[in-house]
User: What shape does this take?
Amino acid sequence: MIVGSTHSILLFLVTSFISHTRSICPINCVCHLDRVPWSVSCSNLDLDEFPDKISSLVEYLDLSGNNLRLLPADIGRLSELKQILLSKNKLNELPEELENLRKLEKLDLNNNNISDVNGGLDVISRLPNLRLLHIKNNPITNLEALKNPSLRILDVSQCLISKLSNETLLYFPQLISLNLHGNPLKSIDHIRSERLKWLDLSYCMLNYLYPDTFQGVPELEQLRLSNNPVLVYSSRKETLRHDKLKKLDVSNCNLDRPGTHGLPALTHVILSHNRIRFLPNRIFSRNKMLIHLNLNDNGLSLVNQSSFIGMPKLEVLDLSHNTLEILPALMLQDNINLHLLNLSFNDIREFPTNFTTTAVTIDLSYNLIEYLPKESLMYMPRIKSLDLSKNQLETFASGVKSQTLKTLILEGNRLVRLSNQSFTYLPSLTWLDLSGNRLTEGIDLETFAYNPNLHTVRLHDNPWRCDCQQLYPIYYYLTRSSKTNPSSLICESPSNVSGYSWSTSCQVTWGKGVKDVWDNGLKASKSERVYGLVLMSLLIIILIFGSIVSIGHTIKEKRRQALLRVREAERAEARERLLLHRRNQREESRHQENIPRVHPDELIGPPTYEEAVQMPRLVRSLDNLDSISVAEGLGQSAQSLDRDAYARKRRRQPRKRTVKRARSEDDLEEQHEDRSRSTKKIKSRSSSVSQRITDSNVPSKSTSRRSSAMQRPSESEEPTSSVDGTWSRTLRSRPTSTKQKRRFFRRDEHSSDDEDSDELKNQSITTSRRNVNVDSIQVIELPREPRSGTYRPPVTPASSPVSLVSSPEPLETNEGISSSRIV
Assistant: This one.
């Protein structure tokens, strides 16, 4: 809120200030107080008095073109004023209050009536920041009393100053430019200024300049002495001297010699409109820095072969408007940087055969050349433009050779015809001007056969005889690629078509056959143009389509590569996850192997499947167990019956998923075959066991539990024997049901094994899950292959007692036969 209010206040103040400044703008003046610099313009209003209501913040004030005779003392309040224009008024003097303008930088007093420097311009010396002072066209007679320590540019041209003493410029220590143009100066008395660089003394009445006239101005670079008709600054013994002067203009001074050998730093010299008739040898040899030399309109009639030697940096040489007739062939051989050579408006009749120059542009117009030799351009290795207009050439030599010439101007000559080889040896020609000659017949197309770059041919102002059959080929050539303007080709004969253009005269006034040929040719040319445009359009379309297809293919390829990189990264990540999963499986399997197995003595009730799996396996095979005593057989039968019931129960249960061990395909096939054989044998054993149980007593409760727990083989187990004789097995997870029921024999907990056996013998045995009568099962005894894979013949109980590895304690039966405890 505070920032917004601040902005509003500032906006209000600015708006009010602008409205206030507008309200104080003088009548009929143009005020710009809303931008920098703030300005007020009251020029050309014929004001007789200084305007009122000028803001004190004005920086630019224009009062030129009025009738002001006096400036008021109130002008001193414009303390911010930087520029004030008071030209074209009638001021005689300046008020003393002007010294309050401490920031004033420019003061223009041109075209006033100021004559007395002491009284009228005395206040100027008290302006500390004044940089530019213009007092042109005032009746000032001297500058002796004028002074200012900060002034840099002083213009006192067209005044009445007749003398310039050596102390005049001492009161302007910062002066750089001084303009005394148009003053009646007759002499200069060794002026002195440490910083002066530009001095204009043109249109004065200077007579003689001593060699050391400008030695007191060591930094002088530009000096204008033009239009001093009686000026003399050089003689046979003495000449003007300065070490840093670069540009000198002494045109129209009636000089008879250049006199520049005392100015070694010159780069530009203008000696035009003088009376220099002759150039001696090496006249400019001391001007080695000279770049531009102008000697036009001097009446120069003779140039020696070594007149321009010693100027290696010369670029522009102007010898026009003289009376030269002969050009020495080697006069410019030392000017290796020459760019422009102007020899126009001379009396040259013969172009030199071996003229040697490095000029790029040569102007030989308005001369009297009648013939151009074949070798005329052979020694001009850089020539690009040759102007031979307004000469007297009647033929153009068929052997002129130049590999660099591009522009050839032959306008205003007397050419009647052109040969087929006129331009054969000018392969770089692009511009040809043949206008204003005397050509009457159509030009053969072979004439331009070797000029493939020619794009402009000017043929106007020639007296053409319109023979349409003859003109048609050249007309078709010129108009097909717009080398010329068809309307500029005007017929002069026959008289009935005089003044008509070629196309008009041939299409209207001539016979039908010629007209048809002309029309068909024009139509053919138009059709060719259309055909060319169509081909060009098709080419452009093909290029655009190819570009689009290429860009699309590139984009698709980049996308495909990016997708491949993503898929490769996903595969690498999947492989890493798989390796990590396998590593976790190995660690888990190792952890499970280290879990201690359950000992049978620790069991309270019937073991679960997991407990039974963790119990150690028997050392003996099931075949050896069949050969034990009757009581042992009964115990074994009960155990087999329990094991059979448990096996059927386990097959109905869902398999629990456990850690698998990686096996080969051969091991899996062998395991599957062993399972199928074991299943068949278990079924057969169960039949025999059920038959035995009917004739024997049931073993004790603890014995049956341990035997059933021992006889629960896992179909997924593959027993392996370790080095220490213990059994290790690989478990396949089999899901178990939460509502799983245990199968057991009903017996009295306090009964003995004999009682249980008798009870089993008298009662019909059924399973806990299915009501199956064991008595009705027919038992068929079959030989059985042991689990360990090694067959052992059955052994009678008396001769071969059963011994177990896990516990050496014997088990008591009804028969008194010792058997090993099942763990």
Notes: The longest strand covers residues 30-32.
